Amino acid sequence: MYKQNLYKILPDHIKPKILNRMNRYKKWEYGYNEDHDMVVISKTGQIGEIYEIQNLKIAYLNKAMFISLKKTNGLGLNILKY
Predict the structure, then answer these.
(1) Distance of CA 45 to the CA centre of its chain
(2) Phi and psi dihedrals of 32, rounded to 5?
(3) Over the stretch 42-62, which tens digit does the pLDDT of each residue have?
(4) How far is residue 27 CA from its own chain's centroid?
């Protein structure tokens, strides 16, 4: 039977060394990134998972990063709203 998939996760779109370095220094800029041919939807400067939807690559925070950001909100820090 045909299985319809709306998206797929690309685990190796960016080399892990580059991904870790850019996340550590929070260097990802919001918007289109020509070097890696993807759209970054993260205003924190860090990305987690990269999704592909109809050949459009979207970089987004992974769940662990998002949950840790929610927990810091209880300490009185301002969290960017999406």
Answers:
(1) 9
(2) -80, 135
(3) 888 999 999 999 999 999 987
(4) 12
